[in-house]
Amino acid sequence: MSIGQLCNRNTVIVRKEDSIAATAKLMRESHVGSVVVVEDTGTGAKPIGILTDRDLVVEILAAGLDPAAVGVGDIMSYELAVAREDEGLWDIMRRMRAKGVRRLPVVDGQGHLVGIVASDDLLALLAGELGQLAKIAHQERAREQTQRSGPQP
Questions:
Q1: How many domains does the chain have?
Q2: Are 10 and 113 in contact (CB under 8 A)?
Q3: Full-prediction pTM beyond 0.85?
């Protein structure tokens, strides 16, 4: 399965010029813990950063800064790791672990934003797959019982 098949394509986006207050309100209304900061290229939105609820707390609230005096571009993460939509799950999980991030914007071949994938998405998928794997042993026992309950010599 490619990450493009799994990612959330309803990505909440902002621009680096946006205010912290408007971004926090958008995050609350959208029930998300992060927004992708994009730049319009004329052919689509290209991700240039990410801003998380943790960034708001650590960089603004805990630092005692006035949110009105700070913009998205001032605190967003600029060293942005992304996933290409045709990449596989294992490659993405390795990248997330290596970069120490829980969310990756997903881009197409031109670098335009198509979605976002979070470690929670991967965990839910893998938990479901492991549940299916666990059922194999039960199915095997049931099959063996059915086959062995036939005529005995």
A1: 1
A2: no
A3: no
